[in-house]
TrEMBL record:
Residues 13-170 form the Metallo-beta-lactamase domain. CDD domains: metallo-hydrolase-like_MBL-fold. Transmembrane segments: none annotated. Pfam families: Lactamase_B (PF00753). Signal peptide: none annotated. One of its GO terms (molecular function) is metal ion binding. It comes from the Archaea. Keywords: Hydrolase, Metal-binding, Zinc. Its cofactor is Zn(2+). This is MBL fold metallo-hydrolase.
Amino acid sequence: MIRNLAQGIRVFTSNAFLVEGETTALVDAGANFDIVSAVSDVTDHLDAVYLTHTHPDHVGNVDALREAFDVQTWGYDAGNLAVDNRIEDGERIQIGDDVYEAIHTPGHKDDHLCFFSRGSGVCFAGDLVFANGGFGRTDLPEGDREVLIQSIDRLREVAGDEVTEIHTGHGPSIVTRPQDDLELASQAARVNR
């Protein structure tokens, strides 16, 4: 089961998805709310924290999680203090009961990753794409619209028709025809660039 622990939180944070199973993991740590209590309400242990990228709204709660659960973090940029272990592009990781492929998708931030499971069809897309054709900002440091477009297209190629749901870094998850939202994001990112 995938739970967004940041749902209903009214502060500046990313979504933070808790996935229970063989490897109980959190995808993104969120920021500015009591993530420890939110995790503890569901489980008493956490095996891993996977980071889609290291913007403050996605990693602000990392230290609290490390202290409370003696857990390590994984992300693309091992030089960032929020990342304990590097994940390579194409590397396979366990989230819950499924194996996910890490897909390096820069454009919003250089260290951005998406995680996609062919077995379940689930994708954690961070801030690459959002519901209704939204896409990540490119006006922040390391943002690049052309690179973002390439990353959206890469995710479309990798996930193809196999993707059944997309859990985004902000806003609602996409659980109905996510291919349509990916196509819309690809088109929208090409407008006024």
